[in-house]
Amino acid sequence: MSLPPLSYDPREGRDAKSAPSIEWIPTLGCWCAFDTGAITAILKSKDFVAPNFAEWHQTLGRMGIDCSSVIEILDYLAIANEGRRHAEIRKTLAKAIATHAGSTKEAAGSKPTELVSRLCRDGASVDLVRDIIRPVCDQLLRLWSACRCRPTTASRLLSWSIFISA
């Protein structure tokens, strides 16, 4: 199955008042919830769980593909965990962000202006995600975490975690 274009929006052409709040979208190959109440119910329900990719990782391991680094990274992403672990990760992240909020706003606030003024000129071609969003996210990640990693390392991790579901 080929992926739909990035601009694809399953809400286009839907009549929000008469369409179901949850629909199977064949183009995306998944269920989509469109109603705020449905989304809230799903997020709070014990009936919906994140998939367990252990079997998939074991299969890849038998093929000689080592996923141990990815698995370790997933242990620290709230969206890849449930229940108590999910809550702990979110609480830890909130504390880390709050600790550096003032200095982060000040230091990262100038990044978009600097990038746009440098890159967005007459006749220039700019990739919004690669050239602007990713560097701003890299800057925020480094400031929030006090990470000493190179921007390319941070952007691979951060971009994956932010844009994987986009």
How large is the count of helical segments? Answer: 7
Give the neighbour order of strands across the main sheet: 1-2
Strand residues, percent: under 5%
What is the straight-line distance between the termini? 17 Å
Low-pLDDT segments, ≥5 res: 162-166
Mean pLDDT, rounded to whole units?
A: 76
Largest sheet: 2 strands, antiparallel
- Record field, number of beta strands: 2
The radius of gyration computed from the alpha-carbon positions, rounded to a whole number of angstroms, is 19 Å
User: What sequence of helices (H) and strands (E) makes up the elements?
Assistant: EEHHHHHHH
Helix content: 55-70%
List the defining traits of the structure above:
two-stranded antiparallel ribbon; single chain; 55% helix; 166 residues
Topology overview:
Elements: E1 22-25, E2 30-33, H1 36-44, H2 54-62, H3 68-74, H4 83-99, H5 101-119, H6 128-145, H7 151-163
Antiparallel strand pairs: 1-2
Helix pairs in contact: 5-6, 6-7
Structure summarized in a few sentences:
With 166 residues, the protein is mainly alpha-helical. It has seven helices and two strands; from the N terminus they run E-E-H-H-H-H-H-H-H.
